[in-house]
Amino acid sequence: MPCRAVIYDIDGTVLNTLNMNMCPLMRIIEEETGEAWTFEQVLKFAPWPGMKVMEALGVADPEGTYARWARYVNEYEEGATLYEGFDEVFAELSARGITQAVVSAKTHAQYEIDVVSKGIDRYMETAVLAEDTDRHKPDPTPLLMCLERLGVEPSEAIYIGDAHSDYEAARNAHMAFGYATWGSTSSEGIEEPDVVLDAPKDILQAVL
């Protein structure tokens, strides 16, 4: 599946952020509702955009509560870690002239903390983040904006993600989807990915 561009989701795809996002969310839920949710219970929110989680929880002040959650995430001791093998993937694709980019529900502030701080952004031609569009995955708008910025047709690119919303966004944008199983919390609804990826290095075989 030769491609001109590889576009990545971040959480659960490029970075392991599960504990650093979900453990603080458990704290938020207890503060807001008085209920003690288990880690397994909050896992369903792992692929969701932050503000959508706030809406689902029905908190009184979604923006303020989301900001507090983000603060707890940034204070969490483990932090985000790059999945093993991505350094090689980024470098090899760059050397082969394959354009790389990001489409993520992360805010610009969180992208700076989790991605730019690790130097990953040097491989990315562009990043379409939460504030850049009014519509979000599974709507195709963020992916279509990314493709437009790159000057690439949908048929010339692949979106790598771990969640059903990533899969639907790629389908709605009429582009290929690579299912990153290593960070996925559920395969429900991901029925026919163009390629199943069991480790980051599998991306090289899929697109070169």
In brief, what are we looking at here?
The chain has 208 residues and is an alpha/beta fold. Helices cover 40% and strands 13% of the residues.
Q: How would you describe this protein?
A:
The protein has 208 residues and is an alpha/beta fold. The protein is built from 9 helices and 8 strands. It is globular, with a radius of gyration of 17 Å.
Helix content: 40-55%
Q: Can you say what the CATH homologous superfamily of the largest domain is?
A: HAD superfamily/HAD-like
Largest sheet, in brief, is:
6 strands, parallel
* Number of beta strands: 8
Could you please say which CATH topology of the largest domain applies here?
A: Rossmann fold
Helix and strand composition category: alpha/beta
Total count of domains: 2
CATH architecture of the largest domain: 3-Layer(aba) Sandwich
Q: What would the average pLDDT be, to the nearest integer? A: 96
Extract low-pLDDT stretches. none
Q: Topology as H/E string?
A: EEHHHHEHEHEHEHEEH
**What strand order characterises the main sheet?**
5-4-1-6-7-8
Alpha carbon gap, first and last residue: 7 Å
CATH class type of the largest domain: Alpha Beta
Shape category? globular
Proportion of residues in β-strands: 5-15%
- Quickly count the helices: 9
Radius of gyration: 17 Å
